[in-house]
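[recover] target loaded
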C-alpha cells in the first residue's frame, strides 16, 4: 500500500508540469487527496486539495488560477497540473490521502487540520528564472 508522486523536474519560469499521484493497494476514489510542498528552509504547505465529494477543490492563494487538481479514477491517479510556474514554486511536492476525512472541506485538509493516512515520497520541482 503506497502513494507515489512523480512528474517533477526542471522547468523555466512560465513553463508547465503535471505531477501525478498514483496509488497502489487501495483506491483513491474513497479518499481526499492533498498536494503539499516544502521549499528549502520553509515549512511544508498545502497547495491544493480535493475532496471525495463532487470533486470540491481548494487552492492556496499563490497558486490559484495556475494550478489545477484532478482525478482519473480509471488510472487510480490524482494529478496536479501546474502552469505559469514561478521560481518561488520550487519545492519538493508531496501527495497525501485520507479516507477518514474524505468528505472534509479541502481547505481544512490543505491547512493540515487532520492526520492523513498516507504520504508519498516527494518529487522535486525546480523552476529557473
Amino acid at each position: 500500500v503506497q502513494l507515489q508522486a512523480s512528474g517533477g523536474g526542471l522547468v523555466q519560469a512560465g513553463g508547465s508540469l503535471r505531477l501525478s499521484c498514483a496509488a497502489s493497494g487501495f483506491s483513491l476514489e474513497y479518499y481526499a487527496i492533498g498536494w503539499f510542498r516544502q521549499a528549502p528552509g520553509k515549512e511544508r504547505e498545502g497547495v491544493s486539495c480535493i475532496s471525495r465529494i463532487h470533486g470540491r477543490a481548494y487552492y492556496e492563494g499563490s497558486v490559484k488560477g495556475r494550478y489545477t487538481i484532478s482525478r482519473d479514477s480509471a488510472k487510480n491517479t490524482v494529478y496536479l497540473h501546474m502552469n505559469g510556474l514561478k521560481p518561488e514554486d520550487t519545492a519538493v511536492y508531496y501527495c497525501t490521502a485520507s479516507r477518514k476525512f474524505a468528505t472534509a472541506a479541502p481547505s481544512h485538509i490543505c491547512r493540515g487540520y487532520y492526520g492523513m493516512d498516507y504520504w508519498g515520497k516527494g518529487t522535486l520541482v525546480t523552476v529557473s528564472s
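[recover] notes: The first strand starts at residue 2 and ends at 6.
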